[in-house]
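Human: We require from you a protein record containing the residue sequence and its fold in token form, and nothing else.

Assistant:
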Amino acid sequence: MKNFKISNKLIGEDEPCFIIAEAGVNHNGDIYIAKKLIDVAADVGADAVKFQTFKADKLVLPDADKAEYQTKNTGSQDTQYQMLKKLELTESNFEELKAYAETKNIIFLSTPFDNESVDFLDSLGVPLFKIGSGDLTNLPLLQHIAKKNKPVILSTGMSTLGEIEDALRILTNKGLRDIIILHCITSYPAKADEANLKVIRTLKSCFKLPVGLSDHTLGINVSFAARVLGACVIEKHFTLDKKLPGPDHGASLDPEELRALVNGMREIESALGDGIKRPTKEEENITKFVRKKIVACTDIPRGTIIEEVMVMLKRVGTEEGIEPKYFYSVLGKKTLQDININSPIKWTMIE
């Protein structure tokens, strides 16, 4: 599977997990809150912070119903259109946020929901395009994104393998090859017992592309498990305060949980190692204290043929002595010197 570079970060199976702190619309339409979200993402060590770029007029009908989770979190007074209208940011806002993210040394990303937003983000210089699960089957949008010839992260919530295959066909038709697939369960929050993380392996096997997880479950354990299964990208919603009004705050991580996610991910990666089975330096130091050697369990005079009843295996606390794997090779050998009881037997002591 091909590794590729996003800004100054390498993404791939053997690279550090690329962690996207998903601010989404948790800025509530306020650029001050948006900047605070960037501050948090940068401070905890996330690789990228991501927003959503849309115009409510181009995204949803005026009388479209809200999703159940949106109604639960924002009430039933507003329509989906009215809710999203309040969550819009202007192009100048995004220009300011990208510049601000650069001062914080964190990659700025945003998900576009229409061609105009794609063009704007491209002109803004985003290093990749993130396609949300809701647009996986929006083949015209995918075709427009593919023309930009930038890396793509494709979320696959609500989809089948066939739909993913169709999306990839559109994206790769013009030669685009730098694509990451994100397994995703589009529920807010998603239930851990429905996360179906083994799909990560399925996607890798089917499409031979890097695979990650857009994690909508509560907490961070599912993200950790995904990394162990080979996810090279983790995307996770976060907020300044879960009690803020808005559709996504309740299912998001707070700043300290986001920090725990990043720190835990780096610890897991350190623990995963390189797959080569060999003793660690600490193990090499402790070997002489816990591995046994062949020792005399009685006084053995010089010229004696060693029998099994004369020797046993004990820890000796040094590197001296013959290892247990040679136990039967020692039997039948003649001693070249007197060997005292509890003395490690050395090759120089026998012929």
Q: What stands out?
A: The longest strand covers residues 18-24. The chain has a mean pLDDT of 96. The chain has 13 helices and twelve strands. The chain has two domains: 4-272, 281-349.
